């Protein structure tokens, strides 16, 4: 449909002419209409949001998303707390029950709570919106994964030892190294007055006094790792490596029936009692070493095991066995 033309009377020419609006005038009118539209929109928005208390659809949508996101973070926070409590329970049982059963040292909190070193692994999240909450969530998740990984490795170690429990039970130095009916406990583990220097010193083992030639038995399965003979210190001595972190030392011996590399079984005779080295009488100096630290040997064997009960646990190989001089 053709646009209608507008005419106006020209008094000079006494004729009707087509009315033409200048570009400037049309632009001015458009600008005025645009400004009036903005004012009307602002007034409408003010009345809609402030006077009537209503929300625009986009604002309502964003607020709904914000509430949903907060709910998800709260749920995630509760899950983090539950996971931390569950891990703390597992760590407590691992350190206080499972690892001690097999003579394993507990894992320190420094190991369990070790952080992440090196470069900033969260740099890509720092420029995002709500980066503080997001960074906190990601970091806490990483910490939980690290704790769970450490706990999993600990259980793997416990599981491996559990599978070797029978072997370990035979290797732990769990019987006296000599028949207790024939000896007396002359010196305990701990600080004592040194018989040579008359000063208070740490005694790293126990002394069992008896007659020269009294049989000495291996306290557990293992391999002879040291055989030494000297005029000072321990004199003639044997060290047996039992594995699983355990070693035993038998010192001041008279005769030695084993050599380095020999496999010995619990109750197998390995030497006889003597008075060699720095010693003031016939006795056996006996040590239990766990993870390179001396521990009290009396904690490892039953002192009431005597007589036939003890002899049933040992196997004498004295007859027909050559002593290594």
Give a written overview of the molecule.
It is a single chain. The chain is an alpha+beta fold and 325 residues long. The chain is 38% helix and 21% strand. It contains six helices and 15 strands. It has helices at 23-51, 57-101, 109-112, 131-163, 165-171, 307-311; strands spanning 7-10, 15-18, 184-187, 190-193, 200-203, 206-209, 215-217, 222-228, 237-243, 246-251, 253-256, 263-264, 269-273, 283-290, 293-295. The strands form four sheets. Strands 3, 6, 8, 9, 10, 12, 14 and 15 form an eight-stranded antiparallel sheet that branches. Helix 2 (57-101) runs parallel beside helix 4. The N and C termini lie far apart (130 Å).
The amount of beta strand, in percent, is 15-25%
The strand count comes to 15
Total of DSSP H or I helical runs spanning 4+ residues: 6
Class from helix and strand fractions:
alpha+beta
Tell me the Rg in angstroms: 45 Å
Shape: rod-shaped
Helical amount? 25-40%
